[in-house]
Write the structure tokens for this entry.
Amino acid sequence: MRCGKMATQHNQSVTIMSRLDPPLVYPDYKSTRKRGPLSPLIVAGDMLADIPAPRFSDKFFVPHDADLTQRGKSIPLGERMVLYGNITDETGAPVRNSLVEIWQANASGRYDHPADDHDAPLDPNFSGWGKTLTDGNGNYRFITIRPGAYPWKNHAFAWRPAHIHFSLFGNAFAQRVVTQMYFPGD
């Protein structure tokens, strides 16, 4: 995302999207009509950033939460991959012991979710979700498979490229980010 900075009345710096980014509501992309903001964004004050996020103990995790390929009776279909990264705050300091969750479609492009009515097969060895905590340096790591593309109801020939959803918890409730990653060429 290409971003710029904007000063507010309290001398806070707020990141805003530049004109190089697509609009938040784009009528030709049907889902933005339902999900895009219709009112101006509200800047959260400093007090929200001071409310600590929940802390997760080891009891919150079970074996293979970060290895999505070890949940069934055999290895799931698809190209196995290691997905890793590093979470930092706005100063570049690592965000430690932060919950990172992912969810994704299987290799055929189908989610293991009742709302997914795509006719691709479900993989009994792949649930499509995982969670882990960042380490002392803000690093996280998952073992998963490359998800498949799937049809998107935007128009008759629309397909959503392969992607993985992320939920990242910072050190406060106001710091949660939900985003997606795509693969080169998609």
About this structure: The helical segments are 31-35, 46-49. The beta strands are 3-7, 13-17, 80-86, 99-104, 129-133, 139-145, 150-151, 159-160, 163-168, 177-182. The first helix runs from residue 31 to 35. The longest strand covers residues 80-86.
